[in-house]
Amino acid sequence: MKAVIAIDSLKGSLSSLDGGNAIAQGIRRVYPQAKVVVKPLADGGEGTVDALVQGMGGEMRRVKVTGPLGTPVMCQYGIVRETGTAVIEMSGAAGLTLAPPEKRNPLHTTTYGVGQVIRDAIERGCRRFLVGIGGSATNDGGVGMLQALGYGFLDKEGRQVAFGAKGLEALEKITDMDVIPELAQCEFRVACDVTNVLCGENGCSAVYGPQKGADPSMILKMDRWLGAYAALAGQRFVKADPCQPGAGAAGGMGFAFLTFTNAVLEPGIRIVLEETKLEEYLKDADVVVTGEGRLDGQTAMGKAPIGVAGLAKKYGIPVIAFAGSVTKDAGECNRNGIDAFFPILRGIVTLEDAMKPECARENLADAAEQAFRLMKAWRGQAMG
Q1: Interatomic CA distance for residues 99 and 113, integer angstroms
Q2: Of 266, 283, 322, whose CA–CA distance to 22 is shortest?
Q3: How far apart, in Å, are the Cα atoms of 33 and each of 5, 24, 172, 376?
Q4: Does the domain formed by 48-269 have CATH 3.90.1510.10?
């Protein structure tokens, strides 16, 4: 029997591979000779760098960059040398978790460090980029990132505008004469699962500004400044389209990538599944196992386990899912490719205890063992 396991991380508890290996342990208690393949999984959010680097045979690198508050931070990203690919999460250089709640202010937070990471990767020979843009602390339209790559965003005195959305207020001119020449050779696959435009009631300032520290007055100003920035960009850069779905992702990072680089915005799970070549591993499997920390109605709307299930169903393969918790509306998952799902908790415990890695590993292994015992018993009866 061949089982392929691709489970998303149990956030705060187990990584994708840790969870997958625990399930593999449970399967082997029932089928000691089974061929069990464990592949990393993520959906473009937290854990994507780890999943892609592990799945693509890459290595991790740490680099000191300018954080969202303008102070140095250490950012970790991945390099796959065989293909010249860099794997980056912008949250590592400009994420909300790098800005304490009392210091969050999108008027001043910057994406400059993201550009520094890209530049570092280019200097190391990378020309392909897989970039996750979730969890940002910024609303600068990606201008900080572009400044680090050599673009000029100048005020009326010809000086670079200040960091943050506030800098856009003084923006008068955009130049590209100092852009690092290698950028033209680079291609970016940007993991983006939102469809927000750049400005307006569905734009980044109105929708995501409050969680980044913006009050109503700031939201109106930032929206106006971003609109003026997009109009100015449109005078010189033909790809500038503030109304394109995803342009408002990560405080306008979507707009920056689409306008100033060779980029496409794609669902994160599609990038992960294609880059890790999961389909090649599962197409001859007898069963596919997936899951995540919490299985619910949102899972069925295209999160990582549903992406895995979709691949499995192309080949008529049954799909089992395990989760730390399961909600009542998780039944939607059964209508979207997951044949059966199982919560792994077997008794009443505190959340703190349930999330302890050793406890989660044991629960995953035990749940997998019981599910595969049932499978073995059913198979025996069917064959008899």
Answers
A1: 14
A2: 322
A3: 16, 12, 68, 13
A4: yes
Helix axes 16-30, 357-383, angle to 10 degrees: 40
Least confident of 116-125, 217-226, 270-279: 270-279
Query: CATH 3.40.50.10350 spans which residues of the chain?
Result: 2-38+289-383
Which regions of the chain carry the CATH code 3.90.1510.10? 48-269
pLDDT tens for residues 135-148?
899 999 999 999 99
- Distance (Å, rounded) from C-alpha 177 to C-alpha 184? 13
pTM for the whole structure = 0.87
Q: Which amino acid is at 30?
A: V
Q: pLDDT category, 383, cuts 50, 70, 90?
A: very low
Q: What DSSP line would sit under 241-261, residue for residue?
A: -TTSTTTTGGGGHHHHHHHHS
Q: Are 15 and 50 in contact (CB under 8 A)?
A: yes
pLDDT reported for residue 281: 95
Task: Label residue 278 left, alpha or beta by phi (over 0 means left) and psi (-120 to 50 means alpha).
Answer: alpha
Q: What percent of the chain has pLDDT over 70?
A: 99
Q: Please, what CATH class does the domain formed by 2-38+289-383 belong to?
A: alpha beta
